[in-house]
Amino acid sequence: MVVPHLADHLADHLAARLRGRQVLVAGVRRPGRLGARLPLETVFEGEQLGRWVVAQRAGWPALEADQQDLLAAIGIEADPELVAAKAAAEAKPTVSRTDRFALGVAALAQFVEREGHARVPRAQKETLEPVERPDGSGEMEAGVIVALGAWANNMKARRAKLTPGQLAQLAEHGVEWA
User: Fold this and answer.
1) Helices marked H in 15-160 — which ranges?
2) Is residue 4 a contact partner of residue 27, using CB atoms and an 8 Å limit?
3) Which pLDDT tens digit goes with each residue over 42-78?
4) DSSP letter at 32?
5) Are 10 and 51 in contact (CB under 8 A)?
6) From CA 28, how far away is CA 75, in angstroms rounded?
7) E strand or H helix at 165
8) Interatomic CA distance for residues 82 and 128, integer angstroms
9) Span of 75-79, 95-99, 110-114, 140-144 with lowest mean pLDDT
10) Which of 13, 90, 19, 86 is nearest to 52 (CA)?
11) What is the DSSP string of 133-147?
């Protein structure tokens, strides 16, 4: 949503150095919460102001105190839900290419054992069976859903980049092109 006359509703434009770039920050004439009511799609003078406000509210803990004060002065405050969602997304562990390949091979092995062939349909998703944690605690890790069809298709398309060991693992499970 482009609001061409946003300037009529906003006053005291402030330029603030946030995150290493110049960003337009607009003050509100009437007391209120700019961040709470500004639509996400709002664009003002070419800046995606709505998206920027959401990013500031979500990243509040990472902002410097003077940046928080400046934003608070114009009615933008932290949103605990956005902060929690951002923290959860950042806490999600990353999976290495080797680990992703190993998950794909495990899903392929499960598929081949059940179906008797390695011709995986493009839309196939495999839920790996729960396994015991490697830390010896005896607890089980939940099953992981692997988009096996997409993975197999990607492996075939990128087969020139696979190592001989990876190709051998695929061939063990009956993959014809490996």
Assistant:
1) 34-37, 49-58, 65-73, 80-91, 97-115, 148-157
2) no
3) 887 788 888 888 889 999 999 999 888 888 887 888 8
4) S
5) no
6) 7
7) helix 164-172
8) 32
9) 140-144
10) 19
11) -TTSS-PEEPP-EE-
Pairing type for strands 131-132 and 140-141 reads antiparallel
Virtual torsion, Cα 87, 89, 91, 96, nearest 10 deg: -160
Structure tokens given for 67: 């940046």
Selection from 48, 26, 50 nearest residue 36 by Cα: 50
Residue 110 has pLDDT above 90, yes or no: yes
The whole model's pTM is what? 0.48
Buried b (16+ CB within 10 A) or exposed e, 50-76: bebbbbbbbbbeebeeebbebbeebbb
Tokens of 49: 């102001």
Q: What is the dihedral of CA 113, 117, 122, 128, to 10 degrees?
A: 10
Structure tokens at 161: 């980049």
Q: Rounded to whole angstroms, how far apart are CA atoms 63 and 79? A: 13
Check whether 86 has a pLDDT greater than 50.
yes
CA 89 – CA 133 distance, rounded (Å): 23
Asked whether the beta carbons of 131 and 140 are under 8 A apart, the reply is yes
